Amino acid sequence: MFRTCLIISQVLLAVIYTSAGVSKFLHGFPVIIGPVWLIEELSKYGLGLFGYLIAVSQLVTGLVLFFPIYRLIGALMLLPMQLCITVVTISLGWSGTPYINLVLLGMVLALIYDEREKLAKLVGSQAGFRQHKVAYVMSFIGFWSAAALMKYGALLMNGA
To answer: Alpha helices of the chain — where are they, by DSSP H?
Structure first.
């Protein structure tokens, strides 16, 4: 029964996000959720390109979710997007929509949970880190030092 629910969730999320992405480009395309006017609305604030990025992200994520072999990748791609959508709808105080988005978020989390063994293999191996620990640590320190210098370097120069 759980497997059947996961398959239904996967296909439903694939249809929802594919249609949401396409509808932002083709306004006549049937859509289940998502504002088709997003690109135009963001363009008013100089963020039209960001609207296109959202549309492409939704389209690609939806298409990836159609293939069972890529379910984990699709779910991981969808997680930050669905989290943002859920937080925005809650923050704006929309009625009803946050509940729908919480259900969709639960579906995404269930897909990730079901693939937890694959995910553990992906992030669990530390052999590469152990071999090159010094390089990782030095890169980390170097990049953060460069970032701090770019941010606060002028203060150091003016104070000296």
So the answer is: 2-25, 38-43, 48-65, 71-91, 97-114, 116-124, 127-131, 133-159
Q: What are the structure tokens assigned to 4, written together?
A: 């059947």
- Does this model's pTM top 0.90? My answer is no
Q: What is the pLDDT of residue 128?
A: 63
pLDDT given at position 143: 94
Asked if pLDDT for residue 126 goes beyond 70, the answer is: no
Same domain, 69 and 148: no
Crossing angle of helices 71-91 and 97-114, rounded to 10°: 160
Residue 132 sits in the same domain as residue 120: no
Do 31 and 17 have their domain in common? yes
Full domain range(s) for residue 76 = 2-124
Q: Is 74:60 a contact under the CB 8 Å cutoff? A: no
